[in-house]
Amino acid sequence: MDPTTLTLAGALVAFAGVLATAVVAYVGKRGELSLSRLSTLTDELQEERSDLKEERRLLKDENVELRGSLVAKDAALAEAAAGRAADQAEITRLRLIITRLGGDPG
Fold first, then answer.
1. What is d(CA 34, CA 50) in angstroms, rounded to the nearest whole number?
2. CA 82, 87, 88, 92 torsion: positive or negative?
3. Model pTM greater than 0.90?
4. How far is residue 87's CA from residue 82's CA, in Å, rounded to a whole number?
5. For 101, what's the count of Cα atoms within 13 Å in the CB-facing half-sphere?
6. pLDDT of 20
7. Which residues contact 17 (CB under 8 A, 6 or more apart)?
8. How far apart, in whole angstroms, are the C-alpha atoms of residue 32 and residue 30?
9. Could you tell me the end-to-end alpha-carbon distance of the chain, in angstroms, rounded to an integer?
10. Is it the case that residue 7 has pLDDT exceeding 90?
């Protein structure tokens, strides 16, 4: 082989090496950027998850307060209903007494 052919072959091998290095660097940089983006997305998701957990806890606390309020209102309504039933029984008893005494309960 003559020197020109050897130089050309060497240059082609060197070019292939440089080209392979450039491809590896490009792929490596893309991988690094992908990992960076993945890390950022993971951080954002964890932050959003923490926010949602806090919101859920607040809603549970509010739900407990509202249930307590409803229990108190139910108790007040039951007491009022019992009072009304007692009043109705007393009215009926008094009407019977009025009727026995010869009056008109109406």
1. 24
2. positive
3. no
4. 9
5. 9
6. 84
7. none
8. 5
9. 135
10. no
Concatenated DSSP letters for 28-88? HHHHHHHHHHHHHHHHHHHHHHHHHHHHHHHHHHHHHHHHHHHHHHHHHHHHHHHHHHHHH
Q: How many CA atoms lie within 13 A of 42 on its CB side?
A: 6
Instruction: Give the CA radius of gyration of the chain.
Output: 44
Digit-coded pLDDT (tens) for 29-77: 777 777 788 889 999 999 999 999 999 999 999 999 999 999 999 999 9
Rounded to a whole number, what is the largest CA-CA distance in the chain? 146
Under a CB-based contact definition with an 8 Å cutoff, are residues 83 and 75 in contact? no
